[in-house]
Design goal:
This is urease. Helices cover 31% and strands 20% of the residues. The protein is α+β, with helices and mostly antiparallel strands. The chain has 2 domains: 5-96, Urease, subunit A (2-Layer Sandwich), CATH 3.30.280.10; 127-244, Urease, beta subunit (Urease, subunit B, Ribbon), CATH 2.10.150. Strands 5-3-8-6 form a 4-stranded antiparallel beta sheet.
């Protein structure tokens, strides 16, 4: 006897429903698979015997009550959907609230429980730097960019910013408008404290001996404005020299 996959599925559903009927007759409260199979089987039978779609839905809603299933089942099975063969073809039947209305609970399965959160401690070791954008265009710096290596036309204390990033939410950025001064807070880079890429001033561990001194010298050599560098002077003269380059 050759059966299609759909026919095999229907027989499997019938077998599960028969097990559910036997257990219900014995007074056993049904679990999720048993209750689902029984409801779906009854719906398919209505369709197969010539019933209408609305008849199948009504039957599915009357098969079981909340008293015949385990206490959590009505909260887990909020609807039962089964493809049923009617006289005019196959249609999906969705039985909503198959055990009747369910009272909402804060601890119902699937509910989102908000845990008590400890107070958020402020991040330690923050520093504030004044940043002047000497460029003629807006410069944006993202949250976790190594601020020491930020755009060369930003005039600020490079030494203070070494090993730090903006203290802003991850994925956001700060805009520095042309010719304006912006005060920003910087937080230390944590974890392994290795930076690779960015402007190429470090490209490795931040705290290895000599790395800071080399990075500062490289920044000055490559024309990164630095408010601590005597050769830069004030932001206006530093900007003028940067344009001349």
């Amino acid at each position: 006897m050759q059966l299609t996959p759909t026919e095999r599925d229907r027989l499997l559903l019938f077998s599960a429903a028969e097990l559910a009927r036997r257990r219900r007759a014995a007074g056993v409260l049904l679990n999720v698979p048993e209750a689902t199979a029984l409801i779906a089987d009854e719906v398919c039978e209505v369709a197969r015997r010539g019933g209408r779609h609305a008849d199948a839905v009504r039957t599915g809603q009357s098969v079981l009550t909340a008293a015949e299933v385990l206490p959590e089942v009505p909260y887990v099975v909020r609807s039962v959907a089964v493809e049923s063969v009617f006289a005019d073809g196959s249609r999906l039947v969705v039985v909503r609230d198959p055990f009747g209305p369910v009272a909402e609970r804060d601890d119902m399965p699937g509910a989102v429980l908000v845990a008590d959160q400890p107070p958020v401690e402020p991040v330690a070791d923050l520093v504030t730097v004044e940043v002047v954008n000497t460029a003629s265009v807006v410069i944006s710096v993202t949250s976790h960019f190594h601020f020491f290596e930020a755009n060369a036309r930003l005039w600020f204390s490079r030494a203070t910013a070494y090993g730090r990033h903006l203290d802003v939410p991850a994925g956001t950025h700060v805009r520095f408008e042309p010719g304006t001064t912006t005060s920003v807070r910087l937080a230390p880079i944590r974890g392994g404290r290795v930076v690779v890429g960015f402007a190429g001033l470090v490209d490795g561990p931040l705290d290895e001996p000599g790395v800071f001194e080399t990075a500062i010298a490289r920044a000055h050599e490559w024309g990164f404005l630095d408010s601590d560098h005597a050769g830069n002077g004030d932001p206006e003269s530093a900007a003028a020299r940067a344009v001349a380059r």
